[in-house]
Amino acid sequence: MPSAPLPDRGLVEVSGPDRATFLQGLVSNDMIALQEGMSWAALLSPQGKWLTDFLAFEAPAIAADAILLDCPRADAPMLVERLSRFRLRSKVTLADRSAEVPVGAVWGEEPPMASLARRDPRLAEAGWRVYGTALGGDPTDYDRHRLELGLPDGVRDLDRDKTVLLEAGFDELHGIAWEKGCYMGQELTARTRYRGLLKRRLIPVTVEGPVPPRDTPVTRDGTQVGEMRSGRDGLGLALLRLEAVQAPALICGEAVLRPRIPAWMRLPTPA
User: Fold this and answer.
1) Angle at the Cα of 150 (from 148 to 153), degrees rounded to 5?
2) Strand, coil or helix: 227
């Protein structure tokens, strides 16, 4: 079974009796119904733009009476600082546990043997996150795996204070609880969905040629239609205007990009 350590992931601990209700009013997914599972959620700006995202879960073996946030390790201090602004009278404590608990990933046909594993809620094919166990393998193997699936990876694929959640697949990948009530940034997220305001999407692509650096313009017939995001080994993600996602080929630097629409993705029907 393939596995890999994820040294670029960290953990933020949100502990205390008000932990679930505290997070519920701030992030895009349901924190009340975590139970034994895991949820993917984002923290947004008041204007509804992406700041960071994380996989939220409970694990008493790591921290009793706490919700743990598996986030980009570089974002952990920022996440603690941002959430701390909203504590007010809530009975919660926030701490960066990144240095204490290793994070890894396992994927394949069978569940992992590790006792502290949680199924990735975005796609069954994504596999499991494993905590507290030093896994073998190469982190680049997981990076290729998530690119094959079309899963975004933090600031490598999203733009802080700019990205709208629906651009990055948060709806189809179970990162938004539409019925849970208000949270910070909800208004723009809902308006984008119900008014059909989406104009671009983060799209998996195959890369023929050298993988272009992030933000390299993507063009079609000489007109810019998007920008490159992360990539490796002939796979990548690109932020494309909707009218370009069905194009057979696009130009990006010295490479040719071919959009590859995964089965999970829902795109608007062309007019």
Assistant:
1) 110
2) strand
Tokens found for residue 130: 């494993």
With contact defined as beta carbons under 8 Å apart, do 43 and 105 qualify?
Answer: no
From 184, 96, 94, 128, select the one nearest 2 (Cα to Cα).
128
Strand order from edge to edge, sheet including 3-5: 3-5, 103-106, 128-131, 117-119
What tokens were used for 192? 């984008």
Q: Which two tokens stand for residue 102?
A: 């290793």
Q: Say what the pLDDT of residue 34 is.
A: 83
Q: Phi and psi for 22 in degrees, rounded to 5?
A: -60, -50
3-state secondary structure of 226: strand
Question: Which amino acid makes up residue 117?
Answer: A
153 close to 235: Cβ distance less than 8 angstroms: no
What pLDDT sits at residue 36? 64
Pairing of strands 3-5, 50-57: unpaired
Nearest to 230 by CA among 222, 241, 238, 221: 238
Other residues' Cβ atoms within 10 Å of the Cβ of residue 113:
10
pTM for the full model?
Answer: 0.95
Structure tokens at 45: 């700006």
Asked if 86 and 59 touch (Cβ cutoff 8 Å), the reply is no
| DSSP code for 27 | B
Q: Are 36 and 69 in contact (CB under 8 A)?
A: no
**β-strand pairing of 3-5 with 235-241:** unpaired
Q: Can you spell out the DSSP letters for 202-223? A: EEEEEEESSPPPTT-EEEETTE
pLDDT in tens, 153-204: 999 999 999 999 999 999 999 999 999 889 999 999 999 888 877 999 999 9
